[in-house]
Amino acid sequence: MQFVSVRMITADVARLVAFYEHVLGVAASWATEEFAELRTPGATLAIAGTGTVPLFAPGSARPADNHSVIIEFLVDDVDRVHENLTGVVHDVVSGPTTMPWGNRSLLFRDPDGTLVNLFTPVTPAAREKFGRG
Predict the structure, then answer these.
(1) Considering just the CA atoms, what is the radius of gyration of the chain in Å?
(2) Which pTM does this prediction carry?
(3) In the chain, where are the structural domains located?
């Protein structure tokens, strides 16, 4: 089995795609107006509109209703990224903070309220874990 992507359902695909294009620094690949993917070296973030939900199972997903998942992205310098996101990210939950497990993390919410964690490993053990030793 291979983990391929995380798919987010939103009522405004264009808005959410534009937000993540800016945050991730990658251009989306659009399949339709209701579906785009942002591919990073480690995983793909898929963003789909509410019109795609009935294709799987009507009512199985609701936009802007996540209260349990944090999407995480490894970045080279979380402090620099934080500065670059000024004016783009409006709901910072926690500014860059070094966590007990050795990652320096920036936690914020995307326009639909999903938690996003951008992090940089800073301790030797954390850098080793992510191949940045």
Answers:
(1) 16
(2) 0.94
(3) 1-55, 69-133
For the stretch 5-32, pLDDT in tens is 999 999 999 999 999 999 999 999 999 9
Among 86, 88, 87, CA closest to 96: 86
What is the C-alpha separation between 62 and 9, in angstroms, rounded? 7
Check whether domain 1-55 has CATH 3.30.720.120, yes or no? yes
How many Cα neighbours within 13 Å face the side chain of 80? 4
- Rounded CA gap, 64 and 106, in Å? 21
Which architecture does CATH list for 69-133?
A: Roll (3.10)
Sequence-distant (≥ 6) Cβ neighbours of residue 21 within 8 angstroms:
27, 28, 38
Degrees (nearest 5) of the Cα angle 28, 33, 37? 25
Which residues partner with 38 through β-bridges?
Answer: 45
Contact yes or no for 28/39 (Cβ under 8 A):
no
- pLDDT tens-digit readout, 66-125: 999 999 999 999 999 999 999 999 999 999 999 999 999 999 999 999 999 999 999 999
